Amino acid sequence: MKFHDCTTAPSPRRVRIFMAEKGIEIPTVQVDLRTGEQMGEAFRRLNPWCTVPVLELDDGTCISEVSACCRYLEAAHPEPPLMGRDPREVGVIAMWDHHCEVDGIAAVAEVLRNRSKYMVNRAIAGPHDYAQIPELADRGERRIGHFFDLLNDRLADNEFVAGDGFSVADISAMVAVDFAGWVKQTLPEGHVHARRWHAAVSARPSAQA
Ligand SMILES: N[C@@H](CCC(=O)N[C@@H](CS)C(=O)NCC(=O)O)C(=O)O
After folding, report:
1. Do 31 and 37 form a contact (C-beta atoms < 8 A)?
2. Which atom of ligand 1 lies nearest, measured to the CA of 122?
3. Contact 30, 2 (CB under 8 A)
């Protein structure tokens, strides 16, 4: 098996943390996003959507998308469970993970991709070029603020994002908060619950992955 990674990018980091929590080690190949290696023929054969991460299985099957990679790894390595131990937990964790991805990570990407001078015509990751829309960067900034509020409210009564136990939703939320730093958005001082949680999850050894 091979893990197609890019150490500086937030999406593969989510899978690296997931693997570290499970104690899984997979040979890793770096994809150079700065030079556009993800758009080249060789990488497109692995992932026609031209994004990292990708898990390449021994039989040649390629799995892209963070959530799909994590689902595969959870099924192949059930311990410790990061996606729920019973139907209720599975549903609640999936719900929170979805919102951390869409309301958190995608909101940050909306700002970065529609504002950065390095992302002109790359407003959406993937094989097609899309022009930047500056209004989406402004909207994304507001969405990040709402995401921070959501996290703080949720973590006022819960130790972790999906409840009592650390889960994949904490990984997605932590990466979203760290990624927000790229566009100079940080958890406000007054968000004491989210800050308590962020310090705790950042102190786990897996956060270094
Ligand atoms: N929905 C995808 C998003 C992956 C993604 O956006 N990856 C970025 C790195 S964080 C990428 O490969 N970007 C390539 C590009 O911008 O051309 C997933 O969950 O894996």
Report:
1. yes
2. 16
3. no
Read off the amino acid at residue 118: Y
- Residues 50-77 have pLDDT tens digits of 999 999 999 999 999 999 999 999 999 9
In-domain check, residue 81: no
Sign of CA dihedral 12, 14, 20, 22: negative
Supply the pTM of this predicted model: 0.98
Distance between Cα 49 and ligand 1 center (Å): 9
Same domain? 111 vs 9:
no
Q: Where are the alpha helices (DSSP H) in 78-133?
A: 87-99, 106-115
pLDDT digits (tens, 9 = 90+) for 67-117: 999 999 999 999 999 999 999 999 999 999 999 999 999 999 999 999 999
**Ligand 1 neighbours by CB, cut-off 6 Å:** 9-11, 33, 38, 50-53, 64-66, 122, 125
From the CA of 157, how far away is ligand 1's center (Å)?
Answer: 32
Q: Are residues 200 and 105 in the same domain?
A: yes
- What residue numbers bound the domain in which 194 lies? 87-208
